[in-house]
Hints:
Blueprint: H1 4-23, H2 32-53, E1 64-70, E2 73-79, E3 83-88, E4 91-94, H3 101-107, H4 113-118, E5 138-143, E6 149-153, H5 155-158, H6 163-170, H7 176-189, E7 198-202
Antiparallel strand pairs: 1-2, 2-5, 3-4, 3-6, 6-7
Helix pairs in contact: 1-2
Amino acid sequence: xxxxxxxxxxxxxxxxxxxxxxxxxxxxxxxxxxxxxxxxxxxxxxxxxxxxxxxxxxxxxxxxxxxxxxxxxxxxxxxxxxxxxxxxxxxxxxxxxxxxxxxxxxxxxxxxxxxxxxxxxxxxxxxxxxxxxxxxxxxxxxxxxxxxxxxxxxxxxxxxxxxxxxxxxxxxxxxxxxxxxxxxxxxxxxxxxxxxxxxxxxxxx
Length: 205
């Protein structure tokens, strides 16, 4: 968000700050929820402060989706329209909720999914890192089962590939690196109109 260069800076800051907070939890908050919230708030402050200091970066922001695993417990957090899915017994489920204007209209029953896909407002994000002084992530506390496959991705992937197509592609028994490459290539072939990012995490037995 905020132009290619500014968006790249915002996303890089978000990743660096979130990972720094979550991987150095000495004296950190007692719960995973507090750790995730603190990491997101710190990342948001870093992006917002950088934009305030440099007018060329004004308005920059980024979406974020992350996953923390402790044994069989999984905490998913997100801001914006980057998503987390879970494939369990070949059934794909979207875990996160998009912070976008059209998806919020769909959830309120004011717009259908088909209308949302065609809407000229589908790029409008209602929550992002770096655009406001404070931001609150959505948190999803889950229990993983052996074989669960989690997909974390940007809207550059989900805008090109439908959920049924994602489900069929993820159900193939391949190494995760190869599955990621197949997803990215399929999104590119389908149009590749935005940055395409995806990470796969599998719960082992």
